[in-house]
Amino acid sequence: MDDITDALEGIELTPEAKKPVPEVEFIGDVNRAKELDDTVRLAILQVLRTGIEDTKTTTTKDPETGDTIIRQKEVIRKAMSVVEIVKKSEELEHIECVTKNQVYHHLPKLIEAGFVIKLGTVTTGKRTTDYYRRTADGFVLVTGVLSAADEKMLRRKSKYMVEKMFQHFDIQLTKEEMKKFIELKLEAFKVELAARKEIVKKIKSDIADKEVLDLYDFLLQTYAFGSQEYIDIHRRIRELIFK
């Protein structure tokens, strides 16, 4: 399996681990979506989506000489232990830091709701370490409902986005303008939520590759731009950034 990196060598896989991981899963069930109305759970999912640096070693035989060829490459591992989730949350600026107790408390709820699985267990001497991964690379909420946790996460990501713009582009916003930018991004997302419900109705097959995902984003924005409110929001964002 592609999940098995050097750090997971010898892992005892769970039955769920053998199932393929879809590129994206659309969440239309309101009760299931409510399970994400928590900043800690969202942070755990964000960390698992980001992954952690690891290596993957492969061994092959040279067909001519019969010599053993060992190759090692750097990879991003999406299955992580509780300790790794906690440490990674401290490194990522756009998410909330989580504690070990919080992860242990919320992981079972994410597993029960079908957002996370236990990949398996690695045993080293007398020590065992469990590893977890998401059930899909991406989750798209199509309930049309913006939870409090979603809003908090969006505000944090929008602030991070502005700070990145300051670093890489000759663009400056005052504190008041930054606050306005974040509010406008939130308003735009609310319009997109309504558009998502309409676009999902038109999906004919499983969305599994990046090209189709790009088409989904294109259709989503195209539909949203049918709203004068959405157009006005982006015009105001443009005026803020390119004043």
Protein described:
The chain has 243 residues and is α+β, with helices and mostly antiparallel strands. The protein folds into 2 domains: 6-138, Winged helix-like DNA-binding domain superfamily/Winged helix DNA-binding domain (Arc Repressor Mutant, subunit A), CATH 1.10.10; 144-241. Helix content is 48%, strand content 19%. The chain has a 3-stranded antiparallel β-sheet. A two-stranded parallel sheet has the order 2-7. Strands 3-4 form a two-stranded antiparallel ribbon. It is globular.
Keywords:
three-stranded antiparallel β-sheet; about 240 residues; alpha+beta; globular; Arc Repressor Mutant, subunit A; 2 domains
Q: Tell the overall outline.
A: globular
Mean pLDDT: 90
Taking strands numbered 1, 2, ... along the chain, how are they ordered across the largest sheet? 1-5-6
The biggest sheet amounts to:
3 strands, antiparallel
End-to-end C-alpha gap: 51 Å
Q: How would you name the CATH homologous superfamily of the largest domain?
A: Winged helix-like DNA-binding domain superfamily/Winged helix DNA-binding domain
Number of strands: 7
Chart the SSEs and their pairings:
Layout: E1 12-13, E2 24-27, H1 30-34, H2 39-50, E3 52-61, E4 68-77, H3 82-91, H4 100-112, E5 116-124, E6 127-134, E7 138-141, H5 148-168, H6 175-200, H7 210-224, H8 228-241
Parallel strand pairs: 2-7
Antiparallel strand pairs: 1-5, 3-4, 5-6
Helix pairs in contact: 2-3, 5-6, 6-7, 6-8
Summarize the structure.
48% of the residues lie in helices and 19% in strands.
